[in-house]
Design brief:
heterodimer; A: mainly alpha; 11 helices; B: alpha/beta; 6-stranded mixed beta sheet; binds adenosine-5'-triphosphate; binds magnesium ion
Chain lengths: ~260, ~300
Amino acid sequence: MNKIWTIALNTYKEAVRNKIFYIIAVFALVLLAFSLILATLALGEDDRIIKHVGLSAINIFGLLMAAFVGVNLVYEELEKRTVYTIIASGASRSQFLLGKFLGLFMTVAANVLIMGLLLSALVIFWPQSNLSALLIMAIYMFLFEMMMVCAIAILFSSFSTPVLSAVLTFMCWMIGHMSEDLLEWARRLAEQGSAGLAKFLTVIYYFLPNLEIYNLKNQVVYHEDIGSIFYHVMVYPVYAIIYSAILLIIAILSFSRRDFK
Amino acid sequence: MSILRIQNLTKVYSKGVFGGKFRALNDLNLEVEEGEIFGFLGPNGAGKTTTIKILLRIIFPTSGQAWLLNKPLGELSELHKIGYMPENPYFYRFLTGQEFVMFYAKLIGLNHEDARKKVDRLLDIVGLSYAKKTRVGEYSKGMVTRIGLAQSLVTDPTLLLLDEPMSGLDPIGRREIRDLIVQLKEQKKTIFFCSHILADVEMLCDRVAILNKGELIKLGTVQELLSSGPAKYIVSFDNLPLEALPELQTIADSHQDISGIHHFTVNNPEEAHKIAELAMAKNANLIEFRPERGTLEDYFVREVGTHE
Ligand SMILES: Nc1ncnc2c1ncn2[C@@H]1O[C@H](COP(=O)(O)OP(=O)(O)OP(=O)(O)O)[C@@H](O)[C@H]1O
Ligand SMILES: [Mg+2]
């Protein structure tokens, strides 16, 4: 555990000193500022616009971080052979991979939280807006979505190149958000007689995480009911943890017997 | 007791998607004794790095076995006593030298206080104290080599595997690293290193192995290898009258005139004697008469050449 933690901290340190980190962070902050401008222009819609643009900024920031930083992490260590000395210091390959995942998730989570705090401060101080429990819930749920995206990125990068991993990670993220639609398509296709394609979509549905359940943006913006609190606080997060764990186990298995270049 | 034992080690790399195979190591057998400095030589692509990577479980052998500190490969706890420095190391660019070595100290489980002390000491040993707050990304090649050595010493290794530790160093740096390696030997550490700088190997190593195309072609002490080569003698004169030259040249293997000093190289002591007598009879001044040991480089070039 100590080794995993050391590798995680190191990953975090490296990540936050990387240029791409600042580029993404600045981009997200600009978006946040942009929401304020929009809010002053669109009279009476302040609350909705700030929350909508603010949450979107956090989402985009988190996703870009997890995907772009994540897919490079393992690859770079292999490419630059830094993994050699880590293995030679007695850390196992699974400890290495788990450390990388944890470091990546820490980086993303810490920054999602900081931006969440900024957004919260913004709505508290903005006259026509206010902090709702839902907003906090949305950020909480988003962290679990990010956990899965980090695990996906680590999994891909444990056996593929950064570019391909990034593409695959984005695809998984997109399909993960269209998960309900996928099932709907499958149902319609089955009705039209394309049973094979319907099966395929259903399989994808079961293999990819349903990420849409972690997206509470609309509910926050339009003050809608989110349904069971218990599901949101407990069940969905546990699902995310189990799903990530399975991905990481697969990553470790594919990683542990292969030759490093 | 041998601290490193390699038995019938073979590595076949598969190349590309079409299943091409490349035999990088072929049935290698080798033993390194405790406390020695062992030079692992061979031309580019001989399989040196491949061997070290197998020992560290960075890659897996196709067949064969190896033992480090008398334990078969893969027993994690034993790796704690091994230090490793990769060739052309490329380290975390965004960490400072101190943070970098600190990372490895923490990785082997030292607490912050101990790690700190150790890191400062190691940076001092490799002569990088002045740059400990500088990011590794800004280090020169020689500095990277040094930080790599500091990193390899974090574990207090009994066995050090160094893959080309002198590459990229200036003459002073090389001298310093050489001295450091000798110091490490005095601390009873075993050092196994690859190098292309044969002058260094000759000065440092107790024994050397020469690898070529994945096969061991020579193993022995530097003395043994050098004395196995043909002996040569060099006789040099000052004031040699020119009319004496043709006769001497027919006896000698080769002749060189370097600003008025004539050097003759011969293959045996009798010829050397004859040349000396003839020349002195013509009133030349004998200024040097010495047997010439070939260098390890000569030996290396000859041996590897015959195995082409
Ligand atoms: N991952 C790999 N896939 C295929 N072939 C490889 C791989 N790694 C090394 N080789 C081949 O194996 C051979 C031995 O390589 P190795 O790196 O062990 O040589 P070396 O003795 O360390 O050489 P150098 O002095 O250049 O460092 C080379 O011909 C190399 O091309
Ligand atoms: Mg090499």
